[in-house]
Amino acid sequence: MPTPRIDINLKKIAHNVKVLSSLFKSKGINIIVVTKGVCADPHIANILVKSGVKILADSRIANIKKMQEAGVKATFLLIRTPMISQAESVVLDTDMSLNSELSVIKKLSEFALLHRKVHKIILMVELGDLREGILPSQLENTIKKVLTLKGIELKGIGTNLACFSGVKPTTEKMDMLSTIAVSIEKKFHIKLSIISGGNSANYNWFSTTKDVGRINNLRLGESIFLGYEPLTGKPIPKLYQDAFMLVAEVIELKNKSSVPNGEIGLDAFGNKPKFKDQGMIRRAILAMGVQDVMVTGLTPKLDIEILGAGGDHIIINAKKEDLKVGSDVSFTLKYGALVTAMNSSYISKNIITPISAAAYCTIIEEKDRFHKKNTAIMPINEDHSPLISLQDSDFNLIFEKSIQKNYRYLVRKEVYKKIGRISKLLDNLGKKLIIRSAWRSFEHQQKLWDQKASFMKNKYPKKTEEEINEIVSMFIAPKRQSTHATGGAVDALIYDLRKKCVLNFGTNDGLHIDLNKKCYPKHPDISEEAKKNRKLLMKLFEDEDFVCDHKEYWHFDYGNIGWAVEKNKEYANYGILEESFVQSANLQYPDKVFFYL
Ligand SMILES: *Cc1c(COP(=O)(O)O)cnc(C)c1O
């Protein structure tokens, strides 16, 4: 991957816009998304439209044209008061514009007539921030004239705060805009369909106000892309703050002094630098500088400190982080950093696209075929470790009833210990591990196979034996290939003690699991809750060095051929243990009542 680059996660942007849209919609406010902060990147624009956004806004006509030429299907709003010299292009290339100058609107009218078009406008009202806007005292006068202009449709009014002077969009300011809207409608007998209250800085007003009044629109950029509220810099709940990540590479790493050596004059940018004496430190240089990005808007993901930057270098104190020459260092961005990075031709734009379910399944199936080929030739160096029944343990476990009579939930000794540690972790979370299955004899495996095959035969009576076998083999291994015969495989789910139910993993109803492609562990089309629960289950086992099956989120392997291939080992430790071996093993059962579900 090239560096420096900006990683753009479209899925996270889509999530943020959906969360904010439905939040604002809950009080009747529609949102327009402002694309200027991301240079109107068409990939981003398209994901916004796909997420339900109808109007895209930008301050530059060139950006609007870029989106149109890339085939983005939306209504386009120009949000910077148009240049009079560009009036014709405004009429031809945009659908709507924010305005504050009558002379400009007159020109828009002329070109609208010339091109037989109707151009929609929103009049901006000055409420104290002292950037664009008509003074409230002059608004009626302006509207009176605007209403006489042919080719111009007055869609509404709006205001912009918290930009030039940082004036907060308070309830008082918003109520003022509502009152102005009501009085205009009354006076001119018109209906204003858009009352646009502001930008991302309106979040706190929105969250705390009881009544949004007539405000029914906001124009949002920053909060959607960066997930925080600009007035305080606080993260907005449920949003991602890392949809954009800037990545730079370490080009030098040395122990050097924290203070320079010599007489100090002005630096490369004419400033007199100051230094804090921290003794000797690990100084790293990154190949990125203020020519690429507004460095003051960067927040490192690692525990490092930005000491300063030049045109082409950022100097950091690497502290205790494990960095070397060639390492990538990632940053989240504030708005200034986002805008400059997106604008920089030195920074490559890396779009991370959400994977479709079909593409994900194809990748998994390909991987699984490759995996099966390799497991077939994986050598086994049997370590003869014993099988122990999980029912002999004092671990807090729940057992799923088995079709096999007197099933004993046997696992290898090492696996037994791992399950013990996992069950302890779950105890602290108010949850319990459900053991569905562990060591299985060939006879047991055959039973499962036959059960599934007869179910499928009933479901698809026209299919041949071979076709049935193929479907069944997608989810149940033929007896001699099952890793469950090694004592290194465990099927597990999690029970929630508080809610008194099996967690939702996306394809289960309690213990019953529908066998389909959504059982592939990271399938994109399951609910967020199911994703979270699968993540928990997989993390518990993976932290104990298990590997999760490619196609079944509940199946975990350790020590056997499946595990050895996935972990790139030279050989597996656990081979198949046949019934005869297990029968002869001396197993003890204390008098216990097991918890079956
Ligand atoms: C930039 C801009 C916005 C969007 O501001 P964010 O802080 O990015 O939400 C809205 N309206 C106008 C007029 C703007 O110039």
TrEMBL record:
Its cofactor is pyridoxal 5'-phosphate. The keyword Cell wall biogenesis/degradation applies. It holds the Pfam family Ala_racemase_N. One of its GO terms (cellular component) is cytosol. One of its GO terms (molecular function) is alanine racemase activity. It comes from the Bacteria. GO terms for biological process: cell wall organization; proteolysis. The keyword Transport does not apply. This is Alanine racemase. It comes from Aquimarina mytili.
